[in-house]
Specification:
Bound molecules: pyridoxal-5'-phosphate
Order of helices and strands: HEHEHEHEHHEHEHEHEHEHHEHH
CATH class of the largest domain: Alpha Beta
CATH architecture of the largest domain: 3-Layer(aba) Sandwich
Length: 346
């Protein structure tokens, strides 16, 4: 057994995600972009529409179960995929789901506020709490602790999934697992990719993936596509997180600062808002591959790849893996916005 596998197997984990996910070639997008594009279908991890967060939650809920927690607390945007999938995990385990929803995107679009993930949260019977500030990670965590205190006073045993970057990103272990899975995919399909493109938000996916690859002696470049902050701030966050993930695993950090790549070419105009590259990617994936991306994360990642191919940073003919991290209920929440963009393009 490899060192990483051995370390990972010592953590409690609830194995609810549908793994391994497929790695499939996207021929028509490859032809259109002049690269060889492979898609890792982490949108198909099951559990309330699936996505990357299912891999992360296996570890959080493993810890929650080990602590005999009976309710789960988590915070995120109104359309948060993390929050939605966390509620599904809680339901499967018979725990109460307490979800705090932050006002991160300034809009009064009723679809954004009522459809997509938040509608699924309602359907799952979760208890929802509004949090009006959208850019205050430590404030959001503090508010979660207040909810936890109230629950404790009622005799409950809460487990909190924190948002702030100072908390150990246990969920990143899910992407160290994914790194091993990807290396196995590459072996089985006899491909040697030049680059991987993945969304970089909280950073748990990006940091876990790059650490998992480097521990396994793979030097493939990993491009974290910014969805929440600009590339310099995000890079610093990821560098710090790789140290924290290494600490969780009890290993030396194999990731060097210069090895952490971030791009914000498709980030504008900001979190949860679409720019031209994002909408172009969303439409191209749907029309060429019948592949549904989401406007907040995955269309930004494919948009970032399109931008970097055009800028020449990713050379024509490169073999690139795009990790489809899910988020697909977002197309319903953003239906009005997407239609508006497409109408303006005509
Ligand atoms: C669909 C999707 N992709 C990517 C990300 C970014 O992952 P991370 O927060 O681990 O950086 C998220 C985060 O919520 C997400 O929901």
């Amino acid at each position: 057994m490899s060192l990483l596998k051995e370390k990972l197997s010592s953590f409690p984990r609830v194995e609810f995600a549908h793994l391994p996910t497929k790695l499939e070639k996207a021929q028509r997008l490859s032809d259109a972009l002049g690269i060889e594009l492979w898609i890792k279908r982490d949108d198909c991890t099951g559990v309330s529409f699936g996505g990357n967060k299912a891999r992360q939650l296996e570890f959080y809920l493993g810890e929650a179960q080990a602590q005999r927690a009976d309710c789960l607390l988590i915070t995120g945007a109104i359309q948060s995929n993390f929050v939605r999938i966390a509620a599904a995990f809680a339901n499967k385990l018979g725990m109460e789901a307490h979800l705090q929803l932050e006002d991160r995107v300034q809009t009064d679009d009723s679809l954004y506020r009522q459809s997509g993930s938040v509608w699924i949260d309602h359907l799952m019977g979760a208890t929802l709490y509004p949090y009006h500030e959208g850019e205050d990670e430590s404030g959001a965590d503090k508010a979660l602790h207040q909810i936890a205190d109230d629950l404790k006073a009622k005799g409950k045993k809460p487990y909190i999934i924190h948002l702030g970057a100072d908390h150990p990103p246990l969920g990143a272990l899910g992407y160290a697992v994914a790194a091993q899975e990807l290396l196995n995919d590459f072996d089985q399909q006899s491909i040697q990719p030049d680059a991987i493109f993945v969304g970089s938000g909280s950073g748990a996916t990006h940091s876990g993936l790059i650490l998992g690859l480097r521990v396994s002696q793979s030097q493939i470049s990993v491009w974290g596509t910014c969805v929440r902050r600009n590339k310099d701030i995000q890079k610093a966050r990821i560098v710090k997180q790789t140290h924290m993930v290494a600490d969780i695993l009890g290993i030396e950090n194999p990731v060097h600062e210069e090895d952490v790549i971030t791009t914000d070419i498709s980030f504008a105009p900001g979190y949860g808002q679409m720019g031209d590259l994002t909408i172009e990617a969303l439409q191209m994936a749907a029309e060429l591959e019948g592949l549904i991306l989401d406007p907040v994360y995955t269309a930004k990642v494919l948009g970032g790849l399109i931008g970097e191919v055009r800028s020449g940073q990713i050379a024509k003919g490169s073999k690139v893996v795009f990790i489809h991290t899910g988020g697909t209920p977002g197309v319903f929440a953003y239906q009005n916005k997407i239609e508006e963009f497409l109408a303006n393009k005509k």
